[in-house]
Structure formats: structure tokens, C-alpha cells
Description:
The chain has a single domain, classed as Orthogonal Bundle (Cytochrome Bc1 Complex, Chain D, domain 2), CATH 1.10.760. Helices cover 59% and strands 3% of the residues. It has helices at 2-21, 44-56, 64-67, 73-84, 93-111, 124-135; strands at 69-70, 119-120. The chain has a two-stranded parallel sheet with strand order 1-2. Helix 2 (44-56) packs across helix 5 (93-111) and helix 4 (73-84) runs antiparallel to helix 5 (93-111). The longest helix has 20 residues, at 2-21. Residues 18-22 have low confidence and may be disordered. Heme C is lined by residues 21, 23, 28, 56-57, 59-61, 65-66, 69, 79-80, 82-83, 86, 88-89, 91, 99, 121-122, 127.
Amino acid sequence: MKSVSAFAVFGLMVAAGFVLAQTADVVLPQDNGPEVIDVSKYPAEIQKAYGLFRTKCSKCHTIARPINTTMSRAEWERYVKRMMHKPNSGISSSDGKKIFDFLIYDQQTRKDPNPGAFFPALSLEEIEKLRQMQRR
Ligand code: HEC
């Protein structure tokens, strides 16, 4: 019996953590784009990092969000750090580095040659405006 209640408590904690981590309270235009990348021609290391990226970067919002956002190298660096430092992000600095390498490779290979197909990052003010509009 003891193990059953411990299990129940654990389940509740997971559920609470999940709710807290769910910050997908706003839909950005990027969220509605494609949600997979054909990485079959990417180097093996980058393909591996793609798996990590899919797991880690879909915890709080769609994976389509980063897949369809175009940014400079400096912006990605700032962004990955910002996402890492959000409460309960679950992203270690070594994961962050691998994901950053993936994002830069993908940016240069898939996004830079075709910038019109992707969304530039919105400012926090623009995101907040969308959030207010969607609440109504
Ligand atoms: C802990 C929750 C959380 C995790 C994990 C997370 N994000 Fe986010 N992300 C957010 C929130 C919240 C926003 C909305 C803007 C903000 O508050 O910073 C956001 C916004 C974004 C945007 C939109 C940029 C814009 O301004 O238009 C991108 C791109 C993004 N995240 C990429 C990533 C990547 C890449 C990862 C994995 C390294 C990741 N996110 C992991 C919470 C998270």
C-alpha cells in the first residue's frame, strides 16, 4: 500500500509540474507551420542533436515554433540560453550546446537560403500583444 500512495503522490507532482511548464498559452504564427525537418542529409552528430532538440524544445510550446523561426547566430545563442534558464526547462548546458549547434547548422542549411519561408522572431511585446488578443 505504501508504494501505491507514493506512486500517486509522484503522479500528482508530475501533473503539477506539467501544468506549470505548459506556457503554451499563446499561439504564434510559427506554431502553425511544419513540425518536422528532413535531416537525412545532415551530418550524424547533427542528426543526433535533432532528436535532443525535438524532445527538449517541445516541452512548453510546439516544436514547430523553433522549426519555423529564422534568427541570426547571436539571436539563437541568446534564445537557447533564455529557454534553458526558464524554470523547469530541463535543459542542461551540455544539451543546450548540442541543440545550439543543431539550430545553427539548420539555420545555415535550410533557412538562410530561403528566408521568406520562415518567421523572424517576435519581440516579447509582440508576443504579449498576441496573448492579450487571444484571451478575449
Ligand atoms: C520552460 C519552457 C520552455 C522551453 C523548455 C522552451 N521554450 Fe521556447 N519559449 C517559451 C516561452 C514561454 C516563449 C514565449 C516567449 C518568452 O516568454 O520568452 C518561447 C518562445 C520561443 C520562440 C519564439 C521566438 C519569437 O520571439 O518569436 C522560439 C524560437 C523558441 N521559444 C525556441 C525554443 C527552443 C529552440 C527551445 C529548446 C532549446 C525552447 N524554445 C524551449 C518557453 C520554453
